[in-house]
Amino acid sequence: MDASPETPGVGPWPGGEAAWPRGADDALDPRYDVALLAEGDRRNVVDRYRYWTLEAIVADLDTRRHPFHVAIENWVHDLNIGSVVRTANAFAAAEVHIVGRRRWNRRGAMVTDRYQHVRHHPEVGDLLAWAADDGPDGGGGLPVIGIDNVPGSVPIEGYELPRACVLLFGQEQSGLTPQAQAACRDVLHITQFGSTRSLNAGAAAAIAMHAWITRHAGP
Ligand SMILES: C[S@@+](CC[C@H](N)C(=O)[O-])C[C@H]1O[C@@H](n2cnc3c(N)ncnc32)[C@H](O)[C@@H]1O
After folding, report:
1. What is residue 138's predicted lDDT score, i.e. its pLDDT?
2. Are residues 110 and 79 in the same domain?
């Protein structure tokens, strides 16, 4: 079942159709995809999900997504959005929110956007209204935590990130808008030590999401 380095993924289910995973009634386990079982599964998914249908994978993820959301202000076409979606999928974020233009370059997502709930908001005010009305157990609002290195921001290192929250990132050139900053419970910066003004936005998002994971999720 191992893939060769030339062909990532796995080949057809070992043993052929006679060995396909079936229930007590001899019906095929509905999580499995007939075409993948027959032809192999070359998708970039963890082994646990090999041969599963897309729908079955999303349904399983939905049972164990983490309660942090990721949001990004998308004023111009930003290649980093795909990378943010991929990292959000890897860390099982509840949802990714994109503010502004609906169009974004999906290449960096490496197809992970199919497994990740992605919601669009026309303006940052729409995101903030959504966060205010949503929240743990259906109410109470989700705190929005800005992630940017701006005057008044506090270090993310040692900050008690809330379990349920929205981590809001700015775009590559200009960072978080003043309106977004004003609405955040706090704005956090990732402490830097070199000469560059900032990290790549996709890299900063990965670091911030992992800070949440370190605080709230077990291995
Ligand atoms: C290029 S930066 C924005 C500009 C930055 N505020 C500046 O002074 O140049 C783009 C986005 O990446 C994230 N980012 C980059 N470096 C960061 C850092 N050190 N701490 C927190 N966020 C950072 C933020 O979300 C930011 O909005």
Report:
1. 59
2. yes
